[in-house]
């Protein structure tokens, strides 16, 4: 009887969503429509703190692919109008035209706490080793706020924190070394705002490290700078066959992504971009106000001297605040174990990623879910539409819609995974 009473009390607690980005706010919208109490904890001062770091970048996919259906329903109740569905939004557009208005709808606004950084999550009165009655006790979330620390109990937790704030190093073995950390002023992580900061790169020798779409975007923007200042030099450092980075080009079902691949191939063929592959970076250091990149190229020691490095080497999830929870992550991708084989870049390139939901995102810690970009671990193939489907399924499950949670509502085209 006491155990049943305890379970009932836990079920009355809110679902806690960590992160007020597109996936976290979609989860909030879906829970709101299902009348499930929730709290959104956002470490930043406003919504979409991660996106603000790349707000100058234009997405490959249109508005029609980037808006959650339940969020749209809540917005339209407030008189919101959908931007042109065929338009490609920038990160700034996504914030101002979608995420900020969504955060202001009455069903969500009062449930968001800003400047609330989650520092740890545990089960009440239990550490990771304790198993007795573990599923019957609530989660306890420890929060670092502007003025003090606090704790909040929850019936379920949805981690939608993403990976943007945790970039990979440029070192080939994936380890953070002091030599790289000492070059904070010379290495830029992510895609710079070239319109704002072009002076930083004009007339300089810039090395771009990485082979994904961020690297291709960076290379394209640097090439535009080189058109106005021929002294600008661009070196592209990667490990794979460069032909593999161009993607499907004209055959890509996402036109903007295909066009980018075509443009970079043409720039490389024209000699605008100097390519070093397979280049394995072992060391970086400063010498005579330049940056030296030392490593191995085609089996021989190679040394490059540049002015700036732009690191587009991807990101990795942060599990530091989850150490007291029982997780089941894949040892290769660091994604949820159940979806790893679908997204592992060692096995998977541009084939379809089957949509997945609550069942595939479960961990041994019942009612704890990692969603969005972070659910993919280190794999680079995530799309917003995938995350929206993840949290739709989880929200259905948490509201008692077990059968609804097992169904998928959307279909990905075979080449939309990246």
From TrEMBL:
* One MF term in the entry's GO annotations: flavin adenine dinucleotide binding
Keyword Oxidoreductase in record: yes
SUPFAM superfamilies from the UniProt entry: FAD/NAD(P)-binding domain
UniProt keywords (A-Z) are: Oxidoreductase
Ranges in a coiled coil: none
Whether Signal counts among this entry's keywords is no
Kindly provide the name given to this protein in its UniProt entry: NAD(P)/FAD-dependent oxidoreductase
Could you read off the lineage of the organism from its UniProt record? Bacteria, Bacillati, Bacillota, Bacilli, Bacillales
